């Protein structure tokens, strides 16, 4: 296990809605998982902004971050990510400044450029503003200005927010985000859990072009990948049927609550859907402790990644918590 001991391990949670669960139960499950991963030594617990999806309840991301941070005590909590085009920089500075004041030195702010939803919903969130003219880098720099103590002399200030100790991360699923994170000298998290196609190239670009900044002296790479662990490979693959069904629902535009392995309908996949599904889930690690250990060792050696962020779409909550436990043992 030695080779994984220096790798940080964290969680991405979309507050996935299970079939039959209320939203209240969904949020309670999220908090319970956060408490368990805190006890297991995970570094951070991130929640991701999505909209207009019946199967994802993390749309009011800042509020959910506060709920999770308030119910835990040491684990870092943050966004993976906030989709910045849906907001003003001032608004996000105020929200995360408030979170930092409530939960000092524990709040992360991961920033993405994607809408986190369909184009119609995105246009409503942005009050009809055209996405093609959006300058992500400029907005990030404006956000950094609002969060800086030096902004105190400007006419527009973020209070709370000014001088807050909130760590920023650039999220991405393409090489474009790699160049941006490198130029800004910020840590880079890649969404390999659903868009792995450009992962390897993006990581190389980020490391090659990284410019040291006051925020970070050397590159810091994070890979979000699907990980499902169980006592046996057979059990893990059985549990993974929920994850594959969820991705198939995206492909077929059926955004419904997630279902148990018994209720999946994967056998009716077309060849074309199977091809897309294979591409979306290329960075998925499924199996027993020994299987995962070997696969993750190879992955770390190949990529030189600094942190693995685990996305575990498992229907059975007991099995999900057991999966988190098995994964944590690989890194200790």
UniProtKB/TrEMBL annotation:
Family annotation (NCBIfam families): oxido_grp_1 (TIGR03558)
Similarity comment: To bacterial alkanal monooxygenase alpha and beta chains.
GO molecular function, one term: oxidoreductase activity, acting on paired donors, with incorporation or reduction of molecular oxygen
Protein name, entry field: Luciferase-like monooxygenase
GO CC terms of this entry: cytosol
PANTHER family xrefs: LUCIFERASE-LIKE MONOOXYGENASE
Species: Faecalibacter macacae
InterPro entries, alphabetized: Bact_Lucif_Oxidored (IPR050766), CmoO-like (IPR019949), Luciferase-like_dom (IPR011251), Luciferase-like_sf (IPR036661)
Domain called Luciferase-like: residue spans: 9-252
